[in-house]
Amino acid sequence: MRKLIVKPRALSEQRQTLQYSRRKFGTRAARAYEALIRRAFQLLRADPARAGVRQLEELGSDFSLFHLRHARTHGAAPKHARHIIVFTYDDMTLTILRVLHDSMDIAERVGDDANEA
């Protein structure tokens, strides 16, 4: 299985997401969302080209996207996942670049990252 690397910006976004979830929906909901994020990371480590993964066409094929709804199991909380994991991968590593709300302009936000690199 690939080594998991979570970039500082993605880690910060994940923390902010879970803090918001805890404030808005309670501790139980935040724990369920955290478990969903962890499950998504594990699924992507095992198969980063799995069903539900798409390329960010605006920036070429370097960046892949995975919506958390694809990590849900039937009947399990949370029912309304709203975040997208932006990542890159190779044979040895899976690198999580961002954890963004699906209402955001993903291409614009990731484009800023690409320009900084």
Structure summary:
The protein has helices spanning 8-25, 27-46, 106-116, and strands spanning 3-6, 53-55, 64-67, 83-89, 93-101. By secondary structure, the protein is of the alpha+beta class.
Helix content: 40-55%
Number of helices: 3
Count of strand segments: 5
Radius of gyration in whole Å, from Cα? 14 Å
The termini sit apart by 26 Å
Strand content: 15-25%
- Which parts are unreliable, with pLDDT below 50 for 5 consecutive residues or more? none
Shape: globular
Order of helices and strands: EHHEEEEH
Mean pLDDT reading: 90
Indicate the structural class.
Answer: alpha+beta
Strand order of the largest sheet: 1-5-4-3-2
Q: Sheet with the most strands? A: 5 strands, mixed
Mind sketching the topology for me?
Elements: E1 3-6, H1 8-25, H2 27-46, E2 53-55, E3 64-67, E4 83-89, E5 93-101, H3 106-116
Helix pairs in contact: 1-2
Structure report:
By secondary structure, the protein is an alpha+beta fold. It is 42% helix and 23% strand. It is built from 3 helices and 5 strands. A 5-stranded mixed β-sheet has the order 1-5-4-3-2. Helix 1 runs antiparallel to helix 2. The mean pLDDT is 90.
Could you list some keywords that capture this structure?
alpha+beta, 117 residues, 42% helix, 23% strand
